[in-house]
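Thread: quick sanity check before group meeting

JM: Hey all, I'm pulling together slides for Thursday and realized we never actually wrote out the predicted structure for the chain we discussed last week. Dropping the sequence here so it's in one place. If anyone has concerns about the input, flag it before I start.
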Amino acid sequence: MHLFESQVKPLIYNALSEDIKGGDITTDAVTLKNDPEILCDVTAKENGVVCGLQIFSMVFDIVSKNNYEINFLVQEGEPVLKSQKVILLKAKASVILYAERTALNFIQHLSGIATIANLARKELEGLKTKVLDTRKTIPGLRLLQKYAVKIGGAENHRFDLSSGILIKDNHIKLAGGVKNALKMVRDYYSGFNFKIEVEASTLDEVKECLEGGADIIMLDNMDVPAMKNAVELINGKSLTEASGNITINKLRKIAQDSGVDYISMGSLTNSITPADFSLNFII
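JM (edit): ok, ran it. Output follows.
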């Protein structure tokens, strides 16, 4: 997955506007008479997977008008250790002080996601099951959050409502049943690009999905024995996805005991702890 400047820079401008639209009184005061070039480093304060280096650099592109030097000491998606230096940066002191919080916010948030996604992927090593993210993202940051999921080694589910077909419980209620919902979707959209996924929370609903010809069946908030029964009932006729309040420590047991093809986790993006990095002047 590649990020384009045209997609990312508006997000950075918004973040900078939020933080420095009125200027920085403290920085302006201490750099008014003397604004030297400063060498600084960014250091990981805990183990993790680094993500957002390009975005970190873009923040300084904007604030410094490209008048700075940056050297990445690690690659995007690379594991880093506590106390490891990841970036060297040289710029005017005022530039660093204006940009550092926004730049660090991005890299910390995205590295937190990449770290959790990497842990999730490792939990499923050796198994056929893949871990997916969801649309449970921070408004405005979905592109970056899903990018971080991929950098960490997990997979993306739908990016938005138009990038896939997922018939959920409320759609089914409105349509008057699974079969009606499937027919309505097929009548409305006959394109061949999308598989049709249907949410099911009971074995009876799974049977309806099979009878209606669902391509993927989401096993929503089922316990592991129920998921195992559902997978056996489906017997390869549809792909299967486990979903609902799934955490890292449950992943391997769900995958091994149920045999699902995918496990989706909203917690990859909606409840992560940011990674911790510090930026320090080298004087």
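AS: nice. The CA atoms of residues 1 and 147 lie 7 Å apart. The chain has two domains: 5-121+272-282, 122-270.
JM: adding both to the slides.
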